[in-house]
Amino acid sequence: MELSKRVQSIKPSATLSINARAKELKASGVEIINFGVGEPDFPTPHHVKEAAIKAIKDNFTRYTPVGGIPELKNAIIEQFKRDYGESYEPGEIIVSCGGKHCIYNLAQAILNDDDEVIIPAPYWVSYPDIIRLAGGRSVIVHTKEEDGFKLRPEKLEEAITPRTRLLILNSPSNPTGSVYSRKELEDLADVIIKHRIYVLTDDIYNKIIFEGTSWVSILHANPEVKEFTFVLNGVSKTYSMTGWRIGYMAGPDPIISACTKIQSQSTSNPNSIAQMAAVAALNGPQDDVERMVNAFAKRREYFLRRLEELKHVTFYPPQGAFYIFPNFSAYYGKKYNGQVILNSLDLTSYLMEEAKIALVPGSAFGDDRCLRFSYATSMKTIEKGIDKLEAALSMLL
Ligand SMILES: Cc1ncc(COP(=O)(O)O)c(C=O)c1O
Predict the structure, then answer these.
(1) Which of 54, 77, 287, 301 is deepest in the core (most CB within 10 A)?
(2) Which helix (H) or strand (E) holds 120?
(3) Position in ligand 1 atom list of the atom nearest CA 242
(4) 135 by DSSP, 3-state: which?
């Protein structure tokens, strides 16, 4: 039987596949250092788990309103007031089965065939495929390492056509950890307002920010952009709740209502118990978040120090999230066992085989010069992994 053209046009998530392969090798007894993981390595906070257990005991186990329970929408509205200084109505909020699902709903709600979505590269792996599934076309705009991998306003302006519907911004970024400054966002907001295109600001990592950097959103930079803006967040990364599948988005009511209609005919409401857990996460104590960010900061520092010592590797120091995206292209063209390493995929395969390190090739993020490391793993693992990386690279010199 032939599969639909739609499904044939997309690929499975590269990060999830690498993770699955690393787990497979581990299960067969091979010790793998996994730098491929896109989720915090901490448990979900205790009080959040307790709230979920209470929800089960209270029989909070039935269908809920499609777009989320009022308690959770209120908690999100309060969070957005604190984080963005903006007020949203419940009709301007949707809760979905993870942030990824919010983006999926948005793409389905606003894109017609061949409508264009501008995505700065390096980008999170799922954006182009979500756009393709909705019939849209991704317009990839490459950024430069020396610009901190950030989109410049003149590049945005050049990429806009009459078919442009949406720009996706992600700060802090997966995979680069880059964070946009207020000025950079002000300049982008001017272009967005001038051309009246939508912008999705994917702020899923906005609580994971390191010393010396302050996180600002495009709404802070220019509140007039609000009528064009969709704000995305969720509990996955901030509260180490990736498996619970709760994400949320705020934006103009008619489009959020359209997203809710789409959700009503696909997944219905997100899990009722996870919604209660998310209320506890947003309204409860935040010290677990602080502890986790402090741990990431220490690992980041160590990682950067070790990377500086690696020969022929350059990198832009991440300011947020838990990723780093160094440039290894100086190793392309080197030979190992008669095989030439031509690109990021070849280098990740070599490192998996030779050093037993799992990494995601930069090509999955639209930049073949780099490899993505996640430091959401213990310090001991990081130390061991970089030792092995160093040894494997020196064999290529
Ligand atoms: C940039 C970015 N946005 C959105 C998501 C979606 O996260 P979730 O669907 O778990 O909320 C991820 C997860 O990896 C991400 O890295």
Answers:
(1) 77
(2) strand 116-121
(3) 10
(4) coil
Residue 82, domain extent: 62-283
pLDDT computed for residue 14 by the predictor? 67
Of 300, 317, 294, nearest in space to 386 by CA: 300
286 C-beta closer than 6 A to ligand 1: no
Report d(CA 291, CA 129) in Å as an integer.
34
CA atoms within 13 A on the CB side of 85: 9
- CATH number of the domain where residue 277 is located: 3.40.640.10
Q: What is the number of the ligand 1 atom nearest to the C-alpha of 247?
A: 11
Residue 385 maps to a domain: yes
CA distance linking residue 175 with residue 321, whole number of Å = 9
Q: Both 32 and 135 in a single domain?
A: no
**320 C-beta closer than 6 A to ligand 1:** no
pLDDT-based confidence at residue 28 (cuts at 50, 70, 90): confident
Closest ligand 1 atom to 170 CA = 1
Q: What's the CA-to-centroid distance between 330 and ligand 1, angstroms?
A: 30
Ligand 1: does its nearest atom lie under 6 Å from the Cβ of 96? Answer: no
Beta bridge partners of 142: 121
217 and 306 share one domain: no
Ligand 1 atom closest to the CA of 321, numbered from 1: 16
The DSSP code for 270 is: P
Lookup: tokens for 278: 């998310």
DSSP strands (E only) in 22-128:
33-34, 93-96, 116-121
Rounded CA separation 156/102 (Å): 24
Q: Give tens-digit pLDDT for 202-258.
A: 999 999 999 889 999 999 999 999 999 999 999 999 999 999 999 999 999 999 999
Q: Which of 256, 283, 310 is the last residue before a domain boundary? A: 283
Is the CB of residue 109 less than 8 Å from the CB of residue 312? no
Distance 338 CA to ligand 1 centre (A): 39
